[in-house]
Description:
Radius of gyration: 26 Å
Largest sheet: 6 strands, antiparallel
Strand content: 15-25%
Amino acid sequence: MIPFFKKYKNFIILFLLVFITLAYFLYKYNKILEKNHIDILVSNQIEIAQNEIINQKNQALSLAIIFSKNQTIIDNLENNNKIELKKELIKILDIIKIYTKQDIDIQVHTKNLEVFVRSWEDKDEGMPLSDFREGLVKAKKSLSPYVSNELGKRFNIKAIVPIYGKNSEFIGSIELIVDFKELINRLKSFGIEAIILLEKEYLQIASSYESMQTLEDFVVLQGEYNKDFFEILKNNQNFLDKNRPYYEYKNRVIASLPLGIYNNKSVGVLQICFDKNMKNFAYLPQYSYFGDINGRQNSKKSEDFIKKEIIIK
């Protein structure tokens, strides 16, 4: 055996070196393939989430435009008849809820951007909103519909449309408000768990969430959420950082999407979590919509487009 080894020593050593080298490069190649798989998966899942946000905004804006053309709403706003206007709002919202099971709130504003009527409460009538409602100010300034994830007493999707009275005169605006519950449910059907987080510093404005669960520098906006996902974020708070596009945790991938801007600062985040071994790469249908969607990249472009394309006069 020893003479055999001595005779083929160089060959055996060369074979082992080649084998180890090939094994190393095969390992590295598999790692590259795995990373590419995860990169594609993350891109796909983020696109699904973005499309669903667009869809929610699209629906909210469509309904707000329809409400703004309701003659009963226009007449009661023009005649300062709050009681009858609220009756009309509740009547329509009840019909919508019967057929869609969706909870929607509506607020009507005066031309001076003050609260006129709210469908969900009778408080704060006459309260000025221009100091902290950027979307409302933009809608009045442009006299065009505007939709965004906006900060107010609550943080949610707000679609605002101007209302015109006699002689096409601007008399106020109507705001349709949708929370993120439907978005969370839709994402869940695609295998994506989601948690909506609001920056704590905005609780002085979004006072409705003062008693909600906290997570580092954020407040969880949902009353119900995936507890396992919450524990992952709680025990790995670096996952809340925005320095990387995504993080891997065991067999899961965690990523985030910005949800709103206030005074050029981030307001909220959509944290998503999904199985990194999932095989379904199916995309949602594309929705044609040009509202204020991507706060990081396309907000200016989208705002300019919606001003050109959707003008109610």
